[in-house]
Amino acid sequence: MSARLWGRGQDWATVARDSSGKIKEFVITKANKAAIKEALSEYKTELQWDSPGALTANFDFTVAQIGNGNAIIAPTIWANCTVWANGILQEKVPGAKIGMYPTVGGHPYTGAWSYGVSKSSKNPEAAYWLTRWIASFTCSNIIFKEAGMVPARIDVLEAPELRQGANAYPLGMVADYHINIWKATSKDVGNYWYFNTKAGGKVYDMQIFAISKALTGEQTIDQVVSEVVRQTLDLTTKFDKKYKIREEK
């Protein structure tokens, strides 16, 4: 959903700034609400071509459907799934390949997959060094080449060997895809609402459950849009004490 909103030049909420560029407030504008409704309607229509797993957030099922050759197209899916599904595909449908194309609008979601150390570990020094290792070139290579997870290091993705021989597919394809979308969205990411509010994580979790109700038919799209707006206002007010949020009526 975020990708569909960003591709329309919209967001869940608009980050309003003053003349110096500092954030003044967050506003859920009329244009934001209209875009949420439009994107959600589009999403629901496209489910007729998507894997049934799209309604359950069951990655294993969705990946297996693609790998087994049962799914022709997945309108929206995590890019990482391409690498995992390809491993199954080569066993089930030898010689077959999976293609990738950026979300319509060219602003795919980049986030959610994070590596870090829990605060409850109560060991800040160990957390620092572990995080340094996770972010290193060596570990990022392992994460990508052996686990299929996309690292947050463009130098790893730009490695020439990823465009050669057996590495070109699927790793080279996935790397080129991410390099292109990172460059295309870099000028906008700093202004995305998620990444400017302390309430982003709380709202993200809420959206997963709220949005699914429109897709399964449990609620109408209009009902879900109203509920998302209401909860976004409530959660942001509760968890982000730095900036206020309001709805444009």
Which whole number gives the mean pLDDT?
89
The number of E-state strands comes to: 3
What structural category do the secondary elements indicate? mainly alpha
Strand content: 5-15%
The backbone outline, from C-alpha atoms, is globular
Low-confidence stretches: none
Largest sheet properties: 3 strands, mixed
Order of helices and strands: HEEHHHHHHHHHE
Q: What portion of residues is helical? A: 40-55%
* Rg of Cα set: 20 Å
Outline the structure in words.
By secondary structure, this protein is mainly alpha-helical. The chain has one domain. It has ten helices and three strands, in the order αββαααααααααβ. It has helices at residues 2-7, 30-46, 59-67, 80-92, 124-134, 137-147, 154-157, 171-189, 200-216, 221-239; strands spanning 14-17, 23-28, 245-247. Strands 1-2-3 form a three-stranded mixed beta sheet. A hairpin with a 5-residue loop joins strand 1 and strand 2. Helix 2 packs across helix 10 and helix 3 crosses helix 4 (80-92). The longest helix is centred in the last third of the chain and has 19 residues, at 171-189. The chain is globular. The mean pLDDT is 89.
